[in-house]
Amino acid sequence: xxxxxxxxxxxxxxxxxxxxxxxxxxxxxxxxxxxxxxxxxxxxxxxxxxxxxxxxxxxxxxxxxxxxxxxxxxxxxxxxxxxxxxxxxxxxxxxxxxxxxxxxxxxxxxxxxxxxxxxxxxxxxxxxxxxxxxxxxxxxxxxxxxxxxxxxxxxxxxxxxxxxxxxxxxxxxxxxxxxxxxxxxxxxxxxxxxxxxxxxxxxxxxxxxxxxxxxxxxxxxxxxxxxxxxxxxxxxxxxxxxxxxxxxxxxxxxxxxxxxxxxxxxxxxxxxxxxxxxxxxxxxxxxxxxxxxxxxxxxxxxxxxxxxxxxxxxxxxxxxxxxxxxxxxxxxxxxxxxxxxxxxxxxxxxxxxxxxxxxxxxxxxxxxxxxxxxxxxxxxxxxxxxxxxxxxxxxxxxxxxxxxxxxxxxxxxxxxxxxxxxxxxxxxxxxxxxxxxxxxxxxxxxxxxxxxxxxxxxxxxxxxxxxxxxxxxxxxxxxxxxxxxxxxxxxxxxxxxxxxxxxxxxxxxxxxxxxxxxxxxxxxxxxxxxxxxxxxxxxxxxxxxxxxxxxxxxxxxxxxxxxxxxxxxxxxxxxxxxxxxxxxxxxxxxxxxxxxxxxxxxxxxxxxxxxxxxxxxxxxxxxxxxxxxxxxxxxxxxxxxxxxxxxxxxxxxxxxxxxxxxxxxxxxxxxxxxxxxxxxxxxxxxxxxxx
Length: 691
Description:
Helix 6 packs across helix 7 and helix 12 crosses helix 18 (411-418). The protein has a seven-stranded mixed beta sheet with strand order 3-4-2-1-5-6-7, with helices on one face. It is globular and about 90 Å long. The two termini are 58 Å apart. The protein has 28 helices and 25 strands. Strand 3 and strand 4 (97-101) form a beta hairpin. It is α/β, with parallel strands linked by helices and 691 residues long.
């Protein structure tokens, strides 16, 4: 398929068409890129004899636009239709399908079929791979004779092993789930579980909120839903856009390879800082001030601040034209302003419309006087100096930065627009103690940038994307959620998070309020509690914090066969034990994360450098490349490591503004391990003791 695409020549009817074809071929080649160590197929479905799959005629095309194929086009040996399932559609040189995309409707039984509902599947086969080499085959019979399933262990392709019953679990799935984590996040198309598959295949028109405990795969589910929607609604979403919003740049680098590995290159990525980057954030707000700035009531304050710029007309508009002078009385101009405001237009749009309304009013006066002006005359009048000056006096232009500057430096202005919304103490928190000389000299925070984004939307409507995936949504303030929500006002979203991991003072306390701020109050909600990443020994220990940090949530349940390892070591000097703990882990496969309080990250970096251990520091450009990673606690969310060494948890909890948030931060750090967790401390583990 790559060779065929590479051999095509771009010969358009003109230069523009030729360049468009070149871009199309380039995108096609990018979509066909793959990792030689990642197999194109991982499963097979054999349907019962003489039974057609109900979705056979809706298999869809591949990610590059190959025409859709019917299931009946797949030749079989007469024992029923057979489909290989893979990461993308693969066709032979005659266009016949060799591998069916995992997102096609005919692939759904691979994830959903079971003994009680085989969905016409006679046999489901899974393939195990290691480093691109086929190492195992496992068959599960679901049809008329499901009495046994057959598993061939790694290496048994040449030497078949024993046959045993696999009615409950799959050894290949377990092996894949427990495979060591190194480098960026990988796709989970071979291991998607039925409850995850339901979320992934939710309709484009539906916004879905996923409350997921650590290790339940909510981030992966969100990315795979984006891949599914891009496949199913390619033309629409390529035109409208898909965006993934993550908590920080390190997290986005960690997940960056998932969608391209599935052939999807059309989704963008952004952090909240990047999304609202109208002001450069160079300072951090005091938490109490940040709480006020993040409160949804600020939207009303900003709305009042913008519309407070309107002024009543003090004189008539007079427009000279030749020997005539055309006049619009002040009261008529005020009526035009009131009419536009009553329509609920954006401030910027209303300003443009006012010029046209004034020009049209003069045009009508010309016609009443016997003249015959056309639309070009109206456009010319709307651009004339008298009309522009009159509009400026009635409906002045508004600059978001200058408006925020006034709010934070002029107590009287703030009081006038915040009356009845913010009390006196809250208003004082917004005012700057040291007033900068001008808006250009001011130092802004992230929360200020979010408010500026709200102001920009009040001026001109923010364009809507087709779909937005929002991860770690529980940490966003209501105003931040509004900023994300207006990016998909006419589209849909996948909202991912865990209330137990809300580690900001302004974070969500329940999903109803968060979804309301997003503008999607009726979003469908799902809760994932089955943990596929964190082993049982670790998650059960961490879950003992839930009654204190999120009492309404169900406790997560680990489904992995490995219980993992949990070791808690009390020492006088934790740093003296860290090097020994890390060196002992170098003999076993997998990534190693050393999680410390933010203030200790630099100390840990120097410790490893002096010891000659190659490592990376989370937050740097190469933070997911090295096997050993030093992770500040505030950056650990969303990441995973095979082995975690957690240093001085009391310091991690104490660094937060209150006890509950401190315990939530600790909960996040405790649940980053995939195989083993070693806690090294000198002052105890807050909220937890070893059973």
